[in-house]
Fold this protein.
Amino acid sequence: MERSIPLRVLLIENNPDDVASIQHLLSHNETEIGSTVTAPTLAEGLRRLASAPFDVVLLDLDLPDSNGLETCAKAHATVPHVPLVVLTASDSASLAHRALEAGAQDFLVKGEIDRHVLLRSMRYAVERHQYQLALAQSESRLRSISSIIEVNADALLLIDDESRIVFANPAAEVLLELPAQELVGQPFRHPLQPGVTARLQLVAHDGTRRVTEITAAETEYGGRHAILASIRDVTAQVGAQSERLKNQQIQKMAVLAGGLAHDFNNFLTTVSLNLHLVKRRSNNVDTVAIIEDIEWSLGCARNLTQQLLRGCANRLVC
């Protein structure tokens, strides 16, 4: 068994007989008690607590400068990190209960204490106090985490080891279109890998499909292992990206079509000039008529080419 660390005890008591009696009991626990310091008043006791570390305080309720439960309340308010064991001549159960409410860890009646009871009371007081401090710190961290989760713009879900949702923030309610009380308890069927961001398509309660990016991280919730899933709706970004890619493809096609149209227009110009020369040198009426039909068709082709060039130019400007 691991040996207990000797306790540093502060005894705040003004009655010399009681001081001697308590010190005598403590002296029989030399291996358990590291040091004992006495103070005759509450003010003196608080000064000693401010100047040196103590593991536990034995506190008489009736002191020259403080009386009754107010003594306990003042001490606890001043040094909430040090456990208090109240000493009193009264065996009133009501007084004991109120002393515990005022911050004491235990309540001992003078004249009914032996060395075993005293040591056990101090040890239990220290252990309970340490547990209460750890619990308070844990609850504080949990409140801090919860407050961050509540105001986060991304949808956040806490998922337990059975793949069920145990918490959903307001952003998750909006994304999935369900109140938190209905989301909690539902299974989360998508695989999650801590530290990895994945793109998933989620279906909201109304059937709307949304593209999301989900990042998972390991955490604790209520003292148990859980996965925190941060979900960001990227539907709009994905749609905009798709539109940009489509426009880029259209731009490339416009450049290609514009180049082809320009080359074809040059070809039509060459053909038209050659036909014009042939027509001037020909005296055959039928031949001239055929050339004029061809020129008319070339004009239509040139108009179509010009329209294509203008369309490509407009697409490139856009």
Notes: The two ends are 82 Å apart (CA to CA). The beta strands are 7-12, 33-39, 56-60, 84-88, 106-109, 155-159, 165-168, 197-203, 209-221, 224-233. Residues 7-142 form a domain with the Rossmann fold fold (CATH 3.40.50.2300).
